[in-house]
Each structure stands twice: as structure tokens, then as C-alpha cells.
Amino acid sequence: MTQIQAIPVNTKATTARNVYSSLYFLEEADLYKSEKPYLIAFGPEDHECPTTNIVAKEAADVLIRDIRPQLDTISFDVNGFTVTHVDSFPSIAEMQETTPRKSYFASVEQAMKKDFGADRVQVIGHLLRKRDAMFPFATGEAYKHHQPIRIVHVDWTPRSIRDKIAAALGDRASQVLDKSTRNILASAWKPLNGTGRDWPLALCDATTFDPQNDLEPSDIVKAHGQEEKCQVYERERYRWHFLSDQRADEVLLFRAYDSKAAVHEGIPHGSFYDPAAAENEVPRESIELHVLMWWK
């Protein structure tokens, strides 16, 4: 397994590198009182049916706090995110191959089982992103790869979580959904190249958002079905965090669903421009695993 030398592994820096940057939210519009936000994520645009009705609103100069000095105090159960460590450092090319991919999945599963003490841990999905050199500017054509997502969102609703688990586990899904004492779906995110400064991920502290009033379910329509996600409205009370200069051995874990948490829903997140990024920063390549944990 290749170690990406551009990302240091054993750096001991603890100095906070808080930043100010823009985040994007769903515009609060009367439209969404009668029409569900949607995005058609395939095929040519039908001008009689726009590909999306989602209108984004920029929030400028948002304080995004560095969690690095707080790694010993942040809590997945309380804040909705944490950091774990792995000993497998794949490249995006290796992630196309079965053996390195399985090795990395196993490394993350083992780290999470150790950290959380779950009876079972299983990767049930993954997503690779490779930033286009022109991003965030439109090229007039579809990007070849998944790009960072600037608009703040929650990946799934509780209903779509059940659908995802059922699709991944088949007949075994009821053992997790209906018979386990606790089940968690978490996202495990890390860059695969560069310095970690190219469009990193901002995470909202779980204690500062209210899913009943801050989230708006939306449909992402794909060629073979649809998936329900949540768009997020801007609120001044949100507290934002990121992991500065994320290292090769560090994996950022954040909640997508927790059956036993006071708030079941996943935490809002989105990519942002890091002002510390160099002008010639290597375009981000990253991987996100969808990891299911459950207790008997």
C-alpha cells in the first residue's frame, strides 16, 4: 500500500489554525413550503423541468475552528465527530483496485471497532472525489469525477438510512435495524493527496443545530432511483470545525445516523476554501467510507 509522502504522518502540531471562509446554505424561500428541493443528477437538462430548484445562499466570513488542539476532548457522542488513525494510506488509483481497497476498508473497520467497541463494523459504501482544476467554476460540461460539495448538507434522512442499510445487508438488515441495541452509520473521510488544505471539510457541532427547524429534506434523483438528503438553513448559533492539515494516518469520522443519540440525524457538513491553500495547491483527491456499526 503506497504512503502518500505529501501528507505527513507523525506531525505533533497542536497550535490552532482557525480560519474564516464562506459556507453555502439553502435559501429560505416560500417555494419550499409547497415544493420539495430536488436535484436531477443525470442526463441532459429538460428545459421544461429544470435540473434543480435548490437555491444556495452564501454566508461569508464564517469562523471555522481548528479541532486539532481539542482532539482529546471532542466526542463523537456529544459533538457528532471525532478522529481515528489508520495504518493504510492508499492513492486514488489504488482505490480502483480490489485488494488495496479491501485493505483500507479493513484498516478503518479495525480502528473504529477499537475506538467504539461495537460488536460489528462493516463498510457498506464508499465515494471517491477528484477535484477538477477548474472547480468551483463551471466549465460548461459535466465534471469527470465527483467534486467537493460546497453547499452544507446532511447525507441522508433517517428514512433513506434504512433504505441504504437494507440495500447493503439484504436479509440481515433487520438484525441491525430492529434487533440491535444501537446502530450507527458514520462517514469516514480523508484526503488521499496533497497538504490537506485543498477544500477541506467543515463540520457543524451537533450541539448547535436543531434538525426539526434547520433541515429541509430534498430528493437527489438518479438514473436508477432517488435518494433523500437534507439541505440546511443558515443559523448564527452553528459552531463550525475542521481538522487542519489533515495527515495521512488521520481519518475524520462524523455521524450520519445514531439510533441512540438524542438527535438521530447526521451532522451538517460541507467543503470550504482554505485561505492557507497555496495558489498552486494540488487538487484534492479524497475518499469517504460509509461505515455501519452495531451492538447486539
Give keywords.
alpha+beta; 296 residues; 5-stranded mixed beta sheet; disordered N terminus; 6 helices
Explain what you see.
The chain has 296 residues and is α+β, with helices and mostly antiparallel strands. The chain has helices at 31-34, 76-79, 98-116, 158-169, 173-177, 211-214; strands spanning 19-26, 38-40, 56-66, 81-85, 120-130, 153-154, 182-191, 201-204, 215-222, 225-232, 240-242, 250-258, 269-271, 285-295. The protein contains six helices and 14 strands. The strands form three sheets. The protein has a five-stranded mixed sheet with strand order 1-3-11-8-13, with no helix packed on it. Strands 4-12-7-14-5 form a five-stranded antiparallel sheet, sandwiched between helices. A four-stranded mixed sheet has the order 2-9-10-6. Strand 9 (215-222) and strand 10 form a beta hairpin. The relative contact order is 0.26.
Query: From the helix content, strand content and strand pairing, which structural class follows?
Result: alpha+beta
Shape: globular
Q: What percentage of the residues does DSSP assign to strands (E)?
A: 25-35%
Number of strands: 14
Count of individual helical segments:
6
C-alpha Rg, in Å?
19 Å
Order of helices and strands: EHEEHEHEEHHEEHEEEEEE
What's the helical proportion of residues?
10-25%
Detail the poorly predicted runs: 1-14
Q: Reading side by side through the largest sheet, how are the strands ordered? A: 1-3-11-8-13
- Ends: how far apart? 34 Å
Q: Quick check: average pLDDT?
A: 90
Q: The biggest beta sheet, please?
A: 5 strands, mixed
